[in-house]
Amino acid sequence: MSDIDRPEDAVEAHTSGDDKSEFHEYLRSAKSASERQSILELARELARLPTDKAAAALETGAAIAAISLRAGIEFLRAAPAAAEVLEAAELRSWGELGRRLALSDAETAITFFTEGVAGFKDIPASVHPIVFQLCSRQITLSSPIAVETLRTLPALAQTISNTDELAAVLDVAAEISRRSAK
Questions:
Q1: Is 7 exposed, middle or buried (0-12, 13-18, 19+ CB in 10 A)?
Q2: Angstrom distances, CA of residue 127 to CA of 18, 64, 83, 141, 166
Q3: What is the pLDDT of residues 152-176, one digit of tens each?
Q4: What is residue 55's three-state secondary structure?
């Protein structure tokens, strides 16, 4: 048995005593063995994340679940893969975009999280903050535009291979969004 085969061990690194007892209670209340197994696997995956990313995932997941439980669960399912590409603050920003989508349509948020952030591997890490700033401003004006921006940015990053030029283009777009949102 590995060191995180039991639910108690899977949440040990990232939760307080009260949170652990709530987790155990929730796990016991799961109606089926497959549901318990799914919860346990999710807890294991989150427990394997670095502490800052696990905290970001859990906090953001809770904020999303307050709006849509299904969207919150999809975020938590996608978080371990997203954490391989994004820093903790970026993971929060990505989750916040999805939370804002869930405010108007939970299914759109679920799809957003299911699609994940695999395309971010093609975007230089140094421009990730600009991307989230741009999309955060865009989502205020139009959710579909913000989502489309995230989907098309990897192709733009491949077209503009110079990181400084890409950052300059995204800065201009973010400034246009900022002025439009006023």
A1: buried
A2: 39, 25, 16, 22, 8
A3: 999 999 999 999 999 999 999 999 9
A4: helix
Total Cβ atoms within 10 A of residue 156: 16
Integer CA distances (angstroms), 89 to 55, 92, 96, 144, 156, in order: 10, 5, 10, 23, 23
| pTM greater than 0.85 (yes/no) | no
Length reported for the chain:
182
Q: How far apart are CA 72 and CA 118, in angstroms?
A: 19
Distance CA 145, CA 109 (A): 14
Distance between CA atoms of residues 79 and 74, nearest Å: 8
**85 within 8 A of 49, measured Cβ to Cβ:** no
At 26, which amino acid appears? Y
Tokens describing residue 120:
């971010």
